[in-house]
Amino acid sequence: MSESLNEDQALRTFVQQVQTRAGLASPQEADVATRVTLRTLAEAVSGGQVDDLRASLPPELQDELGQRSGQARQLDRAGFLDRASGEMLTTDQDAVQQQVRAVLATLREWAPDREIEDTVRQLPTSIAELFD
Length: 132
Known about the structure:
DUF2267_sf; DUF2267; 8 helices
């Protein structure tokens, strides 16, 4: 039971950090942005890297990275943001980019530096810059 409370707390903490960074009005918006960004990121890196990142996330978010294997999908920044905007609660590209950046900055804090470095190395520069 206490493990479940810790898992719930971890999810709330992650989402709250995204909400604060992105300046979102509600945790629900931050939760959607988080899940959409993680799913999009999972498409852009190798299956092995997805597995490495998954371990750093709260259990409720681990499935958002999917059960991928193999090659990454070729996406540029515009494609990445377009894919993310298709499921976010806004279609304003500046807002989408701000939310994606907030999620990736939060992921940077949660994942080991080595995993973030490996992830960034697999991404085109235009997407990697979203981690800054």
